[in-house]
Structures
1.
Amino acid sequence: MSTVNIFQISFEIWGCVISIIICLLLGGTTFKDKDEVGKCLWRMLLVNVLLLSCDALAYIYRGDQTFIGLVMTRVSNFSLFALEYVLLGLFTCYVRQLTGASARLRAWWERIAWAFLALGMACLLITQLTGFYYSFDSTNHYQRGSGIWVSFAVCAAAVFACVVRLWAHRAQLSKTARTTIALCVGVFAVCILGQFVFYGLSLVNIGVTVVLLVLYLRHQKNQYVALLDKRVAEAIQDTQALCAWKQQGASPAEPAGEVYGEGHQE
């Protein structure tokens, strides 16, 4: 196994560990607060853990010609492609929640994204019989097929449909959110192009892991800041109400004080 592959496997394992820790620590708060955007990001992180695990297994068992090696390379590579489409489907849901779209009424951009993902899954199933996306040589090494570009095109088209939606509703997002999402989409686009050009590198998986961690942690930070602002506003309101009540209680014109004074004089 080459040094590059060892580095990739190590990075993916650490990516799994970090993602699992974040999911465990912040998952309870996300689901307790009924945070739909946070739920989408949490699910994306969880799927990404499975995706990284499958990619690492594909590297580990590559070239292993035993029965277990033959099975693991095929299962892990199929799962890898399938989970990429699942991840993009969750990203579509994330964009819908972020821009305030109705879950019952699917807009044209969302239908286009799901259509491309369905096309990708159909091609993946065809690949198992024809080697359209990929195949394995006599030594059980992964080989790209003639239709691998379709897989990259499907992913790029689905992301582009989501970007169009974000651009159309950019006014609903803060400047920081727009900048963060733009950088994340840019990183994803560069990784797709890089992986298409440089064969044998898992740039997309590494890039997606970084993007998801940034988006989820940033969202959690905004949630905590919003909660803190709400608590501070409630505390200020309660303090003002208490001060007003004390001022009314100390007023000399209070009826209870007048009655007490007259009774005391008698």
Note: The helical segments are 3-32, 36-60, 67-98, 108-130, 148-168, 175-197, 203-249, 255-265.
2.
Amino acid sequence: MAGNLLQDVPIHLWQRTRRLVSLDISRNPIEVLGVNSFSGLEKLQQLDISGLLLKRLNPRTLHGL
């Protein structure tokens, strides 16, 4: 999903991918990551958010990863 035109991370995206261990959403024009952006991804071990255009990141967004 890296280098696409994703502008947000809809929570419903992960409902069927709960076993995901690696996620690369880098180099996308995402400005905000919400509290529930990665909820349900308990198995996630690697997350690449480099190159995002983040203006806001709630501290709880990455809690539990």
Note: The beta strands are 22-24, 32-33, 46-48, 56-57.
3.
Amino acid sequence: MILTEISRRQAFLTHFGVSSIIFLVLSYLIIFHWYPDFYFMLDGGQRAIATVFFVDVVLGPGLTLLVFKPGKKSLKFDMSAIVLVQLSALIWGVHNVYTERSATTVFYQGKFTCISQSDAGEVDLPTISAGPSGKQNLALLKRPDTVDELLEFTKEAFAHKSSAVYYYGEKFVPLDEAVVSRMDKYQLDMAALREENAQFADTVGSDDMIQKDDERYQLIPLSCRYAKMIAVYDRQELRIASMLDVPTLLSAEASDEPLPLKMELQRNVVHQIQDDMMRAFLGE
């Protein structure tokens, strides 16, 4: 059957069928590999599906339905142009979806933060992926506990003009048995949560997992690209067990007094930075 013998309906259904197969394959990759687990809902998986659906299932077949006319002299050129437009849009869409895919979620200073692949250049992802959290790829960034460590963190923040957690990616370690004890001291302040929003506190207080075993499960705020929630972290399984739809801006607070937060230490660090800047200015 040559192109001129195909009806508009046949052309549309053929194009739609091929595009649908491609969409199903890409959807599998998005849901199970690029944005697995909670990343799909919170970190861009739904938008990725929508992007691919539009450029693959809607754009191409839609143009075919609009342009295709049996017997038209320029039909071959028109269909070639449609295929070229669709392929270009699909390559662009898949490239963006893939390069912005979720890479890891890191715990630091009382909260989880999702990190995209484009921001994870310094992260040892194979090591993180080998951890016990499976496709959640949970990591931990140890807080600075000495003057030298805090000074190093502060200098890095000055260098990048940002304190974004992904700038410390080379310091990420898998959230496993060796480091999970560092999370034990962090607890979500329910009084502060109730003050922020009483409904938030009621939602957390009624969670079955926390009511059943509050020693096993830990409430940790989680921030991803498109949503904030409270993660119910399972200390035994070393992974996030569930999510609570509570978009709090709080972080869990440490029960001990972190050394870096002491005023004396902070002053020492500031003075050290000032001295370093002065020496650099004088060329010493």
Note: The CA atoms of residues 120 and 128 lie 11 Å apart.
4.
Amino acid sequence: MDLNNMNDLDRFIEDALKSEPMRAVPAGFHRRVEERVRVAAMASHERHGFQSRVVASMILFAMVALTVVVVPALAFYQGWSFRALPGAMGYLDYMTVFVVQSWAQILLALAAGAGTLTVAVLVWVLIPRFRGKAARQH
């Protein structure tokens, strides 16, 4: 008998218990089982929530650390760029004006891309479900 194979294990248990008489379930057994299942589900939910909070905290810490490093570097770069790259700040001003004037088109393009992606995911998820329902009906 291979103990790693669940079918063999089930057969072994069934054979061992064939000679045993059926007994009534103790009072409160179902309530205790339901309570244990509920506690296990809550523990799993809390574990998942804790992991999510840890990941969110790590991301927040990384963002704060990056900000602490990047802001002084950009301040140094801006002061340096005025002397070394006189046209760079003009280009940044041009890009700022471009984004401010065309934010509606940028948002429309992002919304179209997100909509296309959403439709593709819905088709990818829903078509197998409908095919499964159609196959079960026949």
Note: The helical segments are 6-17, 29-84, 86-101, 103-137.
